[in-house]
Amino acid sequence: MPTDKIFIEKIINLADKYHDEIVQIRRNIHQNPELSYHEYKTSAFVEAKLREYGIKYKKGFVKTGIVAWLRGEEHGPVIGLRAELDALPITENTDVRYRSIQTGIMHACGHDAHLAMLLGTVKILKELKKYLYGTVLFIFQPAEELVPGGAKLMMENGAFNEIKPDLILAQHVYPELEAGKVGYKAGEYMASSDEIYVKIQGKGGHAAIPGKRDDTILAAARLLILLQERINKPLPGKPPTVFVFGKIDGPGATNVIPAEVKMVGTFRTFDEKWRNTAHREMKKLITEFAEKENIGVKLNIKKGYPVLRNDEKITKSAIRLSVAFLGDENVVSLEQRMTSEDFANYSHACPVCFYRLGTGIKGKEFALHTSDFNINENALVTGMGNLSWLAYSLLKELAKS
């Protein structure tokens, strides 16, 4: 068995060796994006690559999802590695040669890079198969971008019935971080995310005749403020919370009060207990408001992704291992984020570690989910190398623990 130092060199050399191929894979996927639950060509592309690499797999989970596996020579635990298939409904505004050919659809969240790096990791670990202490499960997941999310549905669809992971890892591009670096946060890292829909209904009518109609617009304003004061109010010991409305639709006119006003918003927090309590508070408050104002109010809470919690022990091990692989200067600590991720569903089923991969391009600013998003493709080497090293090392440590 090679020493860790020699093994790290092997992985670095293999990542360098496959870099050009993985860049081309990433560009191919980027050029041909597909939306959530419709990733048929992307799934077929992955399937063809797995056949080419001689990797066993099962397909058809939530229609387009694929689970592949690689068993090492040594019996041991199972580690899952996840990448996503879907893109976003965004029109690309870049001048790269491999820009999207699908009008209104773009890989603006890095899923093309995640997918390409996971295929690169397949190739690296295949060459190192005889050194693996257990099994690596490669999870090619659809619909990360659309509630209820492919993670939840993959599990419900039996993706882990035959081979159940003992832990799952995933990496996500991070344009704010320089390429060559990775970032970690143990514990609660990303917030839960729920969609809030409120509908206020009354008798519409002429603005000049208040006795003949209800003031639905004023009721909506009062309710919005009341919800903000009750749910968003900072209190000692209260978990960080975001509760905002991003759209109010009351199709009236200067002298017409609408019969219906709709408000849509988001509720996010880092505590599942408070999340459920807040839902109950919203329902109670709206019921009381409707009775007091003598107006119709309907609330629909579309429960989205849960809190993403990185396992403390696994994350600390991953940090230590990444320091050994990349150097201490290239491993950074991250703060909590109010954004959400459907990978969080896995974190409520088994231990996970979801970390960030720096993809920043010097002198340029990119943001996820924007039309001009792009990555530094040198980061693909770091991504597939670090992921391969983590998979090998964590399997080894779990097997010997």
Q: Can you tell me about this structure?
A:
With 401 residues, the protein is an alpha/beta fold. 36% of the residues lie in helices and 26% in strands. The chain has 9 helices and 16 strands. The chain has helices at 4-31, 40-53, 111-127, 150-156, 216-231, 272-293, 312-326, 344-347, 379-400, and strands spanning 56-61, 65-71, 74-84, 133-141, 167-178, 182-184, 187-190, 194-201, 205-206, 241-249, 256-257, 260-269, 296-303, 308-310, 331-333, 352-360. Helix 3 crosses helix 9. The protein is elongated, with a radius of gyration of 24 Å.
Précis, in short:
The protein is an alpha/beta fold and 401 residues long.
List unreliable stretches of 5+ residues.
Answer: none
Percent in strands:
25-35%
Q: Fill in the CATH topology of the largest domain.
A: Aminopeptidase
CATH class of the largest domain: Alpha Beta
In CATH terms, the superfamily of the largest domain is: Zn peptidases
Mind telling me the C-alpha Rg? 24 Å
Main sheet: strand order: 1-2-4-3-5-16-6-15
Return the structural class.
alpha/beta
Roughly how many Å apart are the termini?
Answer: 18 Å
Average predicted confidence as pLDDT:
95
Helix content: 25-40%
CATH level-two architecture of the largest domain: 3-Layer(aba) Sandwich
Q: What composes the largest sheet?
A: 8 strands, mixed
Number of domains: 2
Tally of separate helices: 9
User: What is the string of SSEs from the N terminus onward?
Assistant: HHEEEHEHEEEEEHEEEHEEHEHEH
Number of strands: 16
Shape: elongated
Topology:
Blueprint: H1 4-31, H2 40-53, E1 56-61, E2 65-71, E3 74-84, H3 111-127, E4 133-141, H4 150-156, E5 167-178, E6 182-184, E7 187-190, E8 194-201, E9 205-206, H5 216-231, E10 241-249, E11 256-257, E12 260-269, H6 272-293, E13 296-303, E14 308-310, H7 312-326, E15 331-333, H8 344-347, E16 352-360, H9 379-400
Parallel strand pairs: 3-4, 3-5, 5-16, 6-15
Antiparallel strand pairs: 1-2, 2-4, 6-16, 7-14, 8-12, 8-13, 9-11, 10-12
Helix pairs in contact: 1-3, 1-9, 2-3, 3-9, 5-6, 7-9
